[in-house]
């Protein structure tokens, strides 16, 4: 039995209570859907900054579709802001206290953290502090928080493969990167000073249904699918040779479950990484590398196969965006070895599901 299968089994045998921040967003809604399907109790919180009520309905439908029972009794949504410590503390006290916290609420766009520095800092840094304190007050056993490959900044990665491994990071190239790094350090500090299990998951570029295609700060995949569906030309910032490690959201769910239960499989000594500035931090990606031009061709051909008249479409190039990293690729060996992470969802399946979701 794989590690994730045994985690699923133990969660089914002893259902727990989970707090998910950012539950109305892309990744948060998938986490809630999977946990409800495993019979867990979920307290979901969000302030609808970028999150959608539709995602709450979709996660409930998805959970029921996956065989979840009594979803009304097991899922509680609270509209709150992670900048409000008291509201977070109350949410953590639900169902006799949450055992696991998955912190995903954030200002999650690089350009927006440049355009709205105060809001971004207070949500991404103060929100993390509030969350850690709320988790500590309710005696939560674990906190997993979403950090980002943006933390690697100008670190070129390994000479042969360009893959980034956790212990070596570069300078942050945006407020977003700096704030995610601060959040990692806060997590490590609460872990060493309060003995909590706090794990940071450095997501690379996550793919799947429910990622928002609209607005100035939309992620590239949903935005391009939406643009192609309207018969318009997607914009590539730069020459298109920028590379990314695109990773299906199902693998992110897997990584969260493994990280949340890590302390049950490894004691504090086994989890310690003395002298490593990235202790308790894990890359979550596929370990692959796709140029933006290759991604464009995959999406264009996929949409053309779905009947959109775009087979000959070419992208429009604009200047590079401030704060964007040139190449990013995950070395996932630490997550594999210590957490038992095994990416399982093929990228093209995930891209097809995303096209299906957005373009019908
Ligand atoms: N999607 C990716 O490729 C990716 C990559 C790296 C890191 N991440 C991180 O993963 C997490 C989830 O990202 P996502 O793609 O699902 O983004 P998202 O924008 O879809 O979800 C973020 C959610 O947080 C909520 N939120 C924002 N500010 C809040 C506040 N003050 N109080 C309560 N809720 C608030 C939003 O309304 C939204 O529902 C974020 O922390 C993001 O930085 C995502």
TrEMBL record:
Pfam family name, one: Epimerase
Matches recorded under InterPro entries: Epimerase_deHydtase, Lipid_A_modif_metabolic_enz, NAD(P)-bd_dom_sf
Superkingdom: Bacteria
Span of domain NAD-dependent epimerase/dehydratase: 18-267
Protein name: NAD-dependent epimerase/dehydratase family protein
Organism: Plesiocystis pacifica SIR-1
